[in-house]
Amino acid sequence: MVSERLWPGWSRSCSLADLTKGYLGWREATITLVEEEADRLGVNSHTRQLAISAIRKRCDSLVRMGRQFNATRRKLMIIRVVAEL
Q1: Phi-psi domain of 8 (left: phi exceeds 0; alpha: psi -120 through 50; beta: other)
Q2: What total of structural domains would you count in the chain?
């Protein structure tokens, strides 16, 4: 994998929480860039908000996925503990 060649071991040692934090940091940096470029290019407010909304919508889906993953993992851990009793 490309990520393994660029960052050996990273994919195995990065928690979902750290990955999500990094992704949200990327989201904020991207929004900042869009705002700066929109100012520089004179993009109207409506178009700027559409772009920012699209960025948030795509990035926030990862947060929802992470929450769903954690909820499912908790349920499976409970089932495992109960099965071991």
Answers
A1: beta
A2: 1
66 within 8 A of 22, measured Cβ to Cβ: no
Euclidean distance between CA atoms 17 and 52, whole angstroms: 23
Which residues, in sequence order, are CB contacts of 60 under 8 Å at separation 6+?
27
3-state helix, strand, coil in the chain (%, to 5): 90, 0, 10
Domain extent, residue 6, equals 2-84
Q: Could you report the per-residue pLDDT of 56-72, keeping only the tens digit for each?
A: 888 778 778 877 887 88
